[in-house]
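Q: Hi! First time asking for a complex rather than a single chain. Here are the components, and I think there are two in total. Is that enough to go on?
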Amino acid sequence: MVQTVGGLEVRAKEELFINLEPLQRGGIMPAEARKAALSYIDGYSTCDYCVGTLHLIKKPPIANFLEEVAGFLGMDFAILTNGCREAKFAVVHAITKPGDAIVVDANRHYTSYVAAERVGLAIYEVESTGYPYFQIKPEGYAKAIEKVKAETGRLPSLVLLTHVDWIYGNLVDAEKVGKICEEYGVPFLLNTAYSSGRMPINGRGLKADFVTCSGHKSWAAGAGTVGILAIRKEWAEKVIKSSKEYKVKPIEILGCSARGSSTIALIVSFPFIKERVKHWDEEVKKARWFSSQMEALGDIKQLGDKPHNHDLIRFDTPAFDRIAQKHRRRGYFLYEELLGRKIAGIKAGKTKAFDLSTYQLTNEQLKYIIDSFKDIIEKYS
Amino acid sequence: MVQTVGGLEVRAKEELFINLEPLQRGGIMPAEARKAALSYIDGYSTCDYCVGTLHLIKKPPIANFLEEVAGFLGMDFAILTNGCREAKFAVVHAITKPGDAIVVDANRHYTSYVAAERVGLAIYEVESTGYPYFQIKPEGYAKAIEKVKAETGRLPSLVLLTHVDWIYGNLVDAEKVGKICEEYGVPFLLNTAYSSGRMPINGRGLKADFVTCSGHKSWAAGAGTVGILAIRKEWAEKVIKSSKEYKVKPIEILGCSARGSSTIALIVSFPFIKERVKHWDEEVKKARWFSSQMEALGDIKQLGDKPHNHDLIRFDTPAFDRIAQKHRRRGYFLYEELLGRKIAGIKAGKTKAFDLSTYQLTNEQLKYIIDSFKDIIEKYS
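A: Yes, that's all I need. Here is the structure of the assembled complex.
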């Protein structure tokens, strides 16, 4: 029987399953953050002691938190946004104008493209190396900037790099891209939706002008959605500029953004985040072990960086696709076999290739997952 | 001793106090919504069964909910946004261009102005009638539109009306404004942040092209923030247009907006909302009774519509300001006297004038509040 709450199915994905969904593994909230979010769950709960704008509120300690976050990311200022995409759009909208050019990587999240499209930019792409590694080479940015110069007579208004992408979990050498941007004098936005909150980030060291972060994706902050826009002080005036009429209201976030318990979740999860990024090397080690074990099952090939540098891993999986071809449930068989083994998060219908995340799973859980995949292959062989 | 959760003070404003904060009274979540929001509190919890874009998801029943909401508001389509301000900006950004003119009312929320400013519009204002009623007369819109025509040679690209404003709680005759817009052929955005979710709204009847709503302000949906943008079908193509590259991702909401438990809160609170709007006349009755009782205390004057048509009420309060002048705590005395009587939500330091909301308070609670104000006046007389 399905258990319901308020007419909806109770969501107990973390309680009843091992969840491999890369979108969700970094957004699982620790108990303290869940409790605090519930305490602040009513509308405008952050605004009991409003001082005119969300990011300056002292109680709850939003202003102090943001100051700490700026330091944590190696940047000068940080403000809250409704999410990482909204942080990207805020920058794009603030510093570019329709017809300008932007350079983005081929592995970008769709929202990087849509943010640029919403402003009306010409989008230039840095190609990946293609199958099987799909890497973004920093040198590609120099080439793309030159192309913009040649075709438009001007430099691009912004360069965007997806630090770790959502398809292959590839980690790009952001510092090299930062240096190229510095040499050309082009502002550099580093999208860390899959990196900050999981691994240590030093924006200044990477020569980033802007660092955008996803609270609900990688900072263990759910409730609604929430993001962070961290910037270097040189850009503060342009990007956090206030309304002419309303002096404490930054235009690019329409005054105040995540004015509710998602911000509370972000604050309460922060000590947990500061601790967990110290153990990133262990996460990479687990991911590499997992990848090698998957390939050892036969006819499975890990794509992207090799050795891998992130918990998000994509596999080509002919081993499963062959079974699907003959199975009465076709592509759905794998999803269902896994669910039966209490493993969730591989998208229904995917058997040719799929991505998953090993983030914060234990060695025992990872071993159980490998055994389960092995079991499924053996069942149908 | 202050109780804490995750290092933050536990928020128990609704549990320990009668809360009069107009920003918060319509965003208090019913128990079922709190429970459901907690069940879906992890990051991207709405996206377990993603179909490419948030507003089309079937499980949880987001698509179905939005269809119902469109009907409930008397509109053709509804999509989720991060909040009401984000819904307004989506419309402004989609249908106007820098240099265009917009007509707004003088009682507008600051975000209506900032949304227009962010796009670079020329902002024309419909004046209010000034002290003491501060009403927006629909005829003022015809005058403002004529002014735009005379000064720019073109019609404004958009007209925005604040259905119920945040300062005086005045309810404007939106249908008359809608008719004026229809006659001029100018699109009409109705900001219902303080009306929909509290009182019945029929967007089509009011001749609105766009209705923007605040989940956390008036639809009992907290968690993070969440809004609704409801539109007439004639505008769907322009306002919900998709990315050229990503066909299921609407540009103006960057693909997906409130992808977390704030949307769950909105869905689960909806049956409660449908029921409560039926009792709006009782809320108006309570507000009027409260206003008359306040004025009967002497040297207190209700501003705005009279008789009043909304639970948000603003008072000029020389009765309290006189006490403040002589009190060692000055303006803070009233805040502290009220807190001592377990009444919260009148801003600290306000004694010359303040606003409050009577929304969903019982007759007994309202009587207790009146008695408390009386008690405070007597204590210092």
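A: Chain A touches chain B through 80 residues (CB under 8 Å). Let me know if you'd like any chain examined more closely.
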